[in-house]
């Protein structure tokens, strides 16, 4: 039996204020600090046994699967004895995952219809908030079917919307600061929309059972979903395809992340056990006491921190974001000793190439990246190669895919390629200078007894600076190799 839950516990976690000491008026969110997910209390002190609940509902849990502490990551799933590769670990029936309701026109109860109406205010990029509304509805409901699962969820989350104002600024990275403040503002605005929508609703039709829902409880729900939900195949559409449907998967969502996971999610369509919607299978042999892991996605640390509340050290997919700006790139080229750069005033044929790269025009996408598997984003590399030469004929001999590839050695000649790489190195120097602290200073601060949010902010900015330094090293090696090739050629 679920207990009535009011949202006062989360109200204390998130209170928005305007920081008048800054010129830009940033939102500040105050949070009760925790040391780790392990130290974060769950919604109730002694929640129901999740494994027993899944089995009771017709699901499957391997006899050797246990819930246990997972170091800094809190609770996770561990093998009590070795589990061979290919074994099924968990299977959930169709009715166990938590999904946003699909309401046909004129159908459904008023509370469900009200939830759908509220979801219309949520932008697609914040899809987690849509499912979060359903989560809040079930949390408020007496006797909710999902109460054994919801009661096991953390009371707080370590995502940046719950950081203090100072710790948000301590991230030191403008693209992430923008996303954090954007989410905070959305939650404050959405709180007003929710209040307006439910103001005159009868108690029995209230989507949250008459409970007061504010920015804090909305933030808790959105964070619970963004950090735990999976996007799986939904029911087949008329065209034969099946769209991705966000779902919260009880017990499965306790698997931690790894880029080299030992388990994988299997969702078989039209085969296997028709009663099982989704399964987790051992992708390799799992040793005794080893934790079960899934790959959350090949994401950079912006996404991991923003949605999941952790930072992956030496993340091979981490990158830094820059804005393609003619003045900035001219300055970088001149700092690199490149004469007469054309970034601020490209020739018509160069503008045509920029348009083809979606770096010019009304709908241009000016965000470019350094780092990750590409080292240099292909669009940025092609633009530099084209704009650091005056030989239109030489450029037109190559297609854009060739110009975008770093593995293609000097398609426009050694001199052009050297100028491109030196300009990129100068851009890295400029990007690094935007951080007010150095890595050594950050590492010294980490050794102190800092809060969880400060620790995450330090880890995040250390990793960003490390990405820039790694890119600089890679590009410097390429410049030296070009120099040696030029010497051999002469």
Mind explaining what this structure looks like?
The structure is a single chain. This protein is α+β, with helices and mostly antiparallel strands and 490 residues long. The chain is 40% helix and 13% strand. It contains 17 helices and 16 strands. The chain has helices at residues 8-11, 50-56, 110-119, 127-140, 147-150, 165-169, 174-198, 215-228, 301-308, 326-335, 348-356, 378-387, 392-396, 400-403, 414-433, 439-446, 452-489; strands spanning 16-18, 27-29, 60-61, 65-69, 75-79, 88-93, 98-99, 230-233, 244-248, 256-257, 263-266, 276-282, 293-294, 319-323, 367-371, 375-376. The protein has a 4-stranded antiparallel sheet, covered by helices on one side. Strands 7-9-8 form a 3-stranded antiparallel sheet, with helices on one face. The protein has a 3-stranded antiparallel sheet with strand order 14-15-16. Helix 10 packs across helix 15 (414-433). The chain is globular, with a radius of gyration of 26 Å. The model is unreliable at 1-39 (pLDDT under 50).
Task: Chart the SSEs and their pairings.
Blueprint: H1 8-11, E1 16-18, E2 27-29, H2 50-56, E3 60-61, E4 65-69, E5 75-79, E6 88-93, E7 98-99, H3 110-119, H4 127-140, H5 147-150, H6 165-169, H7 174-198, H8 215-228, E8 230-233, E9 244-248, E10 256-257, E11 263-266, E12 276-282, E13 293-294, H9 301-308, E14 319-323, H10 326-335, H11 348-356, E15 367-371, E16 375-376, H12 378-387, H13 392-396, H14 400-403, H15 414-433, H16 439-446, H17 452-489
Parallel strand pairs: 10-13
Antiparallel strand pairs: 1-2, 3-6, 4-5, 6-12, 7-9, 8-9, 11-12, 14-15, 15-16
